[in-house]
Amino acid sequence: MKSSLKLEISDQVAVLTLNNPQQLNAITLEMREELLKVLSDCEKSPEVRVIVLKGEGANFCSGSSINGMGNRTALETFDHMKKMIEVIKRIRNMEKIVISMVDGYAFGAGFSLAIAADMVYTSPEAKFGLAFNKIGLMPDCGLSYFLPRLVGPHKAKEWILHASIISAEEAKEYRIVNDIFPKEELYSVVMERAKSIAAGPFYANIMTKSIIDRSDRMNMEEVLEAERYAQTILQQTEDHREGINAFRNKVTPVFMGK
């Protein structure tokens, strides 16, 4: 039986590919289970420092599979959504850096999956869809949290209530995505950036991510204190000493994550 998820690891970068191209990489129950397990394994693995999420073929993810929609009981729906919520929380709360690589459709839960990551890069063909309103539903899987924080509540409500499809250019304009690259270059550019981060000072990276992710829940004084404690720890690391020595000798540092 074909796996719904592909995993490749090289140079401390794990590439997770949603593998359901016949349904535009719609998220099945099996895929949710695999995603949760593989993300957990990557979080624990010393061989992985950065995770790249992508879709097989010409699309990122068309959202949750519609199989069973409209026929579930309330309790079945409640339980059905639990695994996807756990996947989103795992991506968002992970110490390691997660990058979404979006080509083609990122609709519904696929939109949530993409913007739960730390960075989002797309091709010009990327499209972010909010079709919930058309089937009598509201956004889920964190979209009601992520989208207003990225684009503001007014624009988020406008897009959601109009069941909008957002182009790559508009997504970049509203800071949903970091950058857009030609389709034929997207994978190589994203991998280059992922490997560059993976080769960096691991603990500095995860502490930077942690403070930035918590900064909207802290005041300035709390952020300053968090920075002070983190910097005190980082100045005792071998990576810091390596960086200082490399700077003094005008050579490229080799960070070991220690």
Automatic annotation (TrEMBL):
Q: Name the InterPro entries on file.
A: ClpP/crotonase-like_dom_sf, Enoyl-CoA_hyd/isom_CS, Enoyl-CoA_hydra/iso, Enoyl-CoA_hydra_C
Regions that span the bilayer: none
SUPFAM superfamilies recorded:
ClpP/crotonase
Q: PANTHER family in the record, alphabetically?
A: EG:BACN32G11.4 PROTEIN, ENOYL-COA HYDRATASE
Q: What family is this protein classified in?
A: Belongs to the enoyl-CoA hydratase/isomerase family.
Q: What's the protein here called?
A: Enoyl-CoA hydratase/isomerase family protein
